Task: structure prediction
Amino acid sequence: MQSVIITGPTGAIGHALIQKCIAEQTEVYAVCRKESSRICTIPVHPKVHVIQCGLDNLLELANILPRGCNAFYHFAWAGTFGNARDDMYLQNLNIKYTLDAVELCREVSCDAFIGAGSQAEYGRVEKVMTPNMPAFPETGYGMAKLCAGQMTRSKCRQYGIRHIWTRILSIFGPFDGMGSMIMSVICKLLDDQPVPLTKGEQIWDYLYANDVADAMYLLGEHGIDGKVYCIGSGQARPLHDFIMDLCHSVEQITNRAGLEKNLRFGEIPYSEKQVMQLCADISDLQRDVGFMPKVSFSEGIAYTVHYCIQRKGDCHEN
Result:
């Protein structure tokens, strides 16, 4: 690809995709909200162009962005953590913003629109998540993602834009939000603080952000119009095991022992709508674009721990 547009470039996936584009000599137009405290983390490179604009003003970029980019990646989304996930008015606005992104995609004659959906679109399931599995979301966040995917597919069909929707399971890596479980646990362990947890019996599928970026880049090149792709490692195991591996990585990197005592498994009860199984069927990703995960959890978590140590102040960001 010669050039791409990315909204939400400061998150784990956006950041990793920018690095992937730099490696591939692909021009990047990174659309970031003006008041973002993380705008300074976007890589400084001749191929990367930062454009400051909020989601509510996306259409103003029609005369600013270049025409004819290969792909438009829409990662930006408000209210991804905590109670905001069930703020129905906010989540409804996200649908509008995603439709605006498609409108902008058309205005600048972009070839493809790639949207970042979520496993939350499925609700609670007890088997491997497939692209065509019926979706019964139980949160406003999941409902809005599902609706955004369906509406943008219809709008792209009207405009003749190649449309790809992804349903991302659990990702981790540098530049992830500190409200995520992985980052929160790392930061608490680095501070030698107690870490309240559920029992950790959930069966989980984690994928490192750089692998997600590889999948996204390949989808921009070869993803099939109108398809939904599940993005994960395709392998799952108990969340308890992931957390133990994380703890051992922190101990090894910091040369400290005994941090396991801080892990308070079972201190947090499962929520009423607790998702107990996450595992992606990535066979379409493998078949259509040749994707295969490259980074193991242990390797990726070591990179993430080093990132948290280097940016220790981020552990206390709002």
In short: Residues 80 and 141 are 7 Å apart (CA to CA). The chain has a mean pLDDT of 95. Residues 3-173+206-234+279-294 form a domain with the Rossmann fold fold (CATH 3.40.50.720). The radius of gyration is 19 Å.
